[in-house]
Structure formats: C-alpha cells, structure tokens
C-alpha cells in the first residue's frame, strides 16, 4: 500500500498499530478493520465528495487507490483483467502460502518438518509461477501495476522463506528493478522508521497466534 502512495505522490499519514500489544483489537480500529489485521486506510477525500471511506484488505486497498487515481491499473479490458488476476493470485496464493512458511519456520513453538517442507515447497512453486510469467516481460502485466506492488513485499524475505533468487532469473531481475525504484526505497525507509525490526516476544506470539472467535 505504501508503495502505491509513494509512486502516486499522494499525501498520507501513517498511524502505527502495535499488533504485538493487541492494538488491532481496539474497538476504534475494529470499526475500520473488522478482521483485526492490517493494512487499513481511511480516505478523507473520496471521489464522490462524501464522508470518509475506510477500506481494509490490501488487495481491496490497491484496487481502490488505483481506481481513485487512475494509476497503475490498465484502462483497457484485457489489461485490467490480467492485473486483477495476478492481484488475486497474490491475495489467494503467494501471500497466504508465504505467510504459513514464515509461521512454521520462524514462529511456531514446535518445528514440524512436514509443515515446514510443505510450505517451503509451495512457496518455491509459486516463485516458479511468477518467474515463468515474467519471461519476456519487464513487469507482471506489461507496465508497472498494483499486481507488482502486491507481490513484491512477499519476495523481500525470500531467504527466510528458504528460497534462492538465482533459481528464478526472471523473478530476480523483476525484484531488483522494483527494489531500486525511488518510491520503493522511500516506502521501506518510512516503514523501518515507524516499525523497526525487533524480535517477537512470547507474549506477542500469544496475541498474534492464539486468537479465536472469542
């Protein structure tokens, strides 16, 4: 999301939510983020001129911002379909599978070889899908789009995911091209300034991984 805001030159303010302390369960946050997850945005100047609009789920946010600004989403039918396909591919595949990869290899209290192997292999398969798609293409769907912005952050921790970019030359070229974009550099610098990397405490793990419907 921050990648889009920087690329589009939009004014925005980041409001940190400390998920390790349970800020995502605050009633005020739940009004705009009912899934108690990030990211969530509030647009105080929606296109219809009405009351502020809140949007949760990263894919929905990227579509909203693309439609609002007319940027990073093709206007032609086929281009729009392709970007939407690959955006949903990230939402339904790369993100969830890499997330489970992170959980079982990095955070689970018990190292379960089958689970780790399962998700490392599935992450590898998805890297291969993206690598094949990028053959002969600079970006996922021709020009840089919200599909690229959605997928890129999930490739950043490739080493933690048990992957080697040299195994995927097209993906590696794509990754390095996005990494070098000024908007990407700025977005990640702002993210680190607000949320510096830190070890996850056991209390934070209980909050993040121990929730039920209650």
Automatic annotation (TrEMBL):
The family database entries (CDD domains) matched by this protein are listed as: GST_C_YfcG_like (cd10291), GST_N_Ure2p_like (cd03048)
GST N-terminal domain location is: 1-73
Residues annotated as domain GST C-terminal: 76-200
Name of the protein in question: Glutathione S-transferase
Q: Which Gene3D superfamilies match?
A: 1.20.1050.10, Glutaredoxin
Q: Keywords for this entry? A: Transferase
Instruction: Give the UniProt family note.
Output: Belongs to the GST superfamily.
Q: GO terms for molecular function, please?
A: transferase activity
Check the record and name the Pfam families matching this protein. GST_C (PF00043), GST_N (PF02798)
């Amino acid at each position: 999301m921050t990648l889009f805001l920087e690329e589009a030159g939009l004014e925005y303010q980041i409001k940190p939510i400390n998920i390790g302390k349970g800020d995502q369960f605050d009633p005020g946050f739940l009004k705009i983020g009912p899934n108690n997850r990030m990211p969530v945005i509030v647009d105080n100047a929606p296109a219809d001129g009405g009351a502020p609009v809140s949007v949760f789920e990263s894919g929905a946010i990227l579509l909203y911002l693309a439609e609002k600004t007319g940027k990073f989403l093709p206007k032609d039918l086929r281009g729009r379909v392709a970007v939407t396909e690959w955006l949903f591919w990230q939402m339904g595949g790369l993100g969830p599978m890499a997330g489970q990869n992170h959980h079982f290899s990095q955070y689970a209290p018990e190292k379960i070889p089958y689970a780790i192997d399962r998700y490392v292999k599935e992450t590898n398969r998805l890297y291969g899908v993206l690598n094949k798609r990028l053959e002969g293409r600079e970006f996922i769907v021709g020009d840089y789009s919200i599909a690229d912005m959605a997928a890129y952050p999930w490739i950043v921790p490739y080493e933690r995911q048990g992957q080697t970019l040299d195994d995927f030359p097209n993906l590696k070229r794509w990754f390095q091209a996005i990494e070098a974009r000024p908007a990407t550099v700025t977005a990640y610098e702002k993210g680190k300034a607000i949320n510096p990397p830190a070890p996850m405490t056991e209390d934070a793990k209980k909050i993040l991984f121990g929730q039920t419907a209650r």
